[in-house]
Amino acid sequence: GAGVSQSPRYKVAKRGQDVALRCDPISGHVSLFWYQQALGQGPEFLTYFQNEAQLDKSGLPSDRFFAERPEGSVSTLKIQRTQQEDSAVYLCASSHGQGENQPQHFGDGTRLSIL
Amino acid sequence: KNQVEQSPQSLIILEGKNCTLQCNYTVSPFSNLRWYKQDTGRGPVSLTIMTFSENTKSNGRYTATLDADTKQSSLHITASQLSDSASYICVVSATGGGNKLTFGTGTQLKVEL
Fold first, then answer.
1. pLDDT-derived band at A1, boundaries 50, 70, 90
2. Which residues of B are less than 8 Å from A98 in CB distance?
3. Of A41, A91, A102, the CB nearest to B99
4. Which end of chain A is more exposed for a tag (fewer CB within 10 A), N or C?
5. Contact at 8 Å (CB) between B32 and B48?
6. Residue B29: is its pLDDT beyond 60?
7. pLDDT computed for residue B86 by the predictor
8. How confident is the model at residue B70 (pLDDT cuts 50, 70, 90)?
9. Mean pLDDT, rounded, of chain B
10. Distance (Å, whole) CA B78 – CA B45
11. Does B46 sit within 8 Å of A98, measured CB to CB?
């Protein structure tokens, strides 16, 4: 497809389980971003990749959150030992270049619910 | 710390009417300001991106303005349509921030017949 694709669209997990969320960016896009969006709030930055390099992970809320992009394309956001406060929509975005005025193209997100 | 405040929190207008959404921001040093539209259950879609030197930018029926002195921006929607019902989010980015975006909480717009 032409856009950013995220899977699964919905994920329900029990507290304490590990989850993995996938992002397929637009082909050829160098930069990839993960955001967390709580209900009724704007997205909040989690982490940023330029190709395979994770250049900024300052937004990851705890060491239970881990992201990777090993080949500079598909990215996975992993959450270990999930907690109820991890329930949110996780959005992935990609941009063609690394310039600061590049538009970011978003996927439709993965809605994560922790029971 | 970069911050974005938007008003009103929600707004209901009749189809065909115009409306203006407001955004106040704090970001240093300023790189750009964006407006996104987010439909329920979907990812945000970019409407406009403005740098420091731009004080207005249009995208169809959407016109954004930027006053870098007062750190304010507005999004004007002309001749609203039912499909304009969505959340409109103001977003800022700082120079040297690696294109990391700071989002407001959005204005929830509902257009009714």
1. low
2. 98-99
3. A102
4. N
5. no
6. yes
7. 97
8. very high
9. 94
10. 18
11. no
Residue B74 near residue B65 (C-beta atoms within 8 A): yes
Which residues partner with B26 through β-bridges?
B3
Is residue A98 scored above 80 in pLDDT? no
Query: Which structure tokens are listed for B18?
Result: 């115009």
* Residue B100 sits at the chain A interface (C-beta within 8 Å): yes
Which tens digits make up the pLDDT trace of B72-99?
999 999 999 999 999 999 999 988 777 7
Residues B77-111 as b/e (b if ≥16 CB within 10 A, e otherwise) read beebeeebbbbbbbbbbbeebbbbbbbbbbbbbeb
Residues A76, A39, A48, B35: is their CA dihedral positive or negative?
positive
CB B46 to CB A43 under 8 A?
no
Structure confidence at residue A75 as a pLDDT band (50, 70, 90)? very high
